[in-house]
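tool_call: predict_structure(chain=1)
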Amino acid sequence: MSDQREERHQHFETLAIHAGQEPDEATGAVVPPIYQVSTYKQDGVGGLRGGYEYSRSANPTRTALEENLAALDGGRRGLAFASGLAAEDCLLRTLLTPGDHVVIPNDAYGGTFRLISKVVERWGVEWSVADTSDPQAVRAALRPRTKAIWVETPSNPLLGISDISALAAVAQDAGVKLVVDNTFASPYLQQPLALGADVVVYSTTKYMGGHSDVVGGALVVGDDTLGEELAYHQNAMGAVSGPFDAWLVMRGIKTLAVRMDRHSANAERIAELLSSHNKVTQVYYPGLAEHPGHEVATKQMRSYGGMVSFRVAGGEQEAVEVCNRAKLFTLGESLGGVESLIEHPGRMTHASTAGSLLEVPADLVRLSVGIESVDDLLADLAQALG
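tool_result:
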């Protein structure tokens, strides 16, 4: 077990490599073993050895990841799940009961919108949409049975920025939980708990894993009681991270800081190119001075991340053709890997929002900027735009 008192004084890059990952006592291995096991020999009836009985309840590899996640976000407890949506489902069913209400952003990930509007709503939970970049709009959306405010910042796919500290004040005044999906930023670029959030949500598939080879999710909380409640529901529901998946996410986290620096630097260059291109009508990137959330992003983020979205002249069909003409940018869903990806949100990741208040522009293209040579990426975008 890591000494949490020492960890509080360590920098992020050190925690990413060492938190929860002490050398193996039996062999001295510097990388935590993959405990590919379902059950454990008990020390007598009801006598758990090291707290382990069955790997749905706990697994040493997953424990190492969860300790690492908590340390990176400055939280009291981290929980690792089979996917980001599994983490969201556990959180929603822990916080909400039938008749409760949740405020969601007007620019949310399509999977989150589908989960809340098509699954959780059938359970009797109500929801409404607010512009989370405007704290007063969020305050106005609250109801007597509101239990949570759900925020993405930066948001997916329009890179909207919400002021976490300001929304935390709204949530605290109303006695509700503030949930921040921090997937686009990662804990390296942004620390929601330190800004007043109650829960941080991740798809660890993305920047945390970082290599497009694992699916996972996580929750990190700053309150022990809520952590215990979430752990109870996680065990009851069972959508836990497998040991190999947990190991892959830990492997990715070790290089998170250096990768995010490169993702961000490349994205800034690409946003500059797009901003000056005559076939691009709008660029969404919080690093641009003209972005409406630029000042807030500068205040609460280390840098601006690796995601860029833009709209093209010529409408939906031209946006689709730009995606098809890209060569180095791979046409595909997901994000956050070392390789650059391009997609058409309206027909791909956000198709579930069609016809709703969250429908995305038809002429929108989203980029996940990788860590390749930025000159090669710029050349590919230039030829794709024509």
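agent: The longest helix spans residues 256-275. Proceeding to next step.
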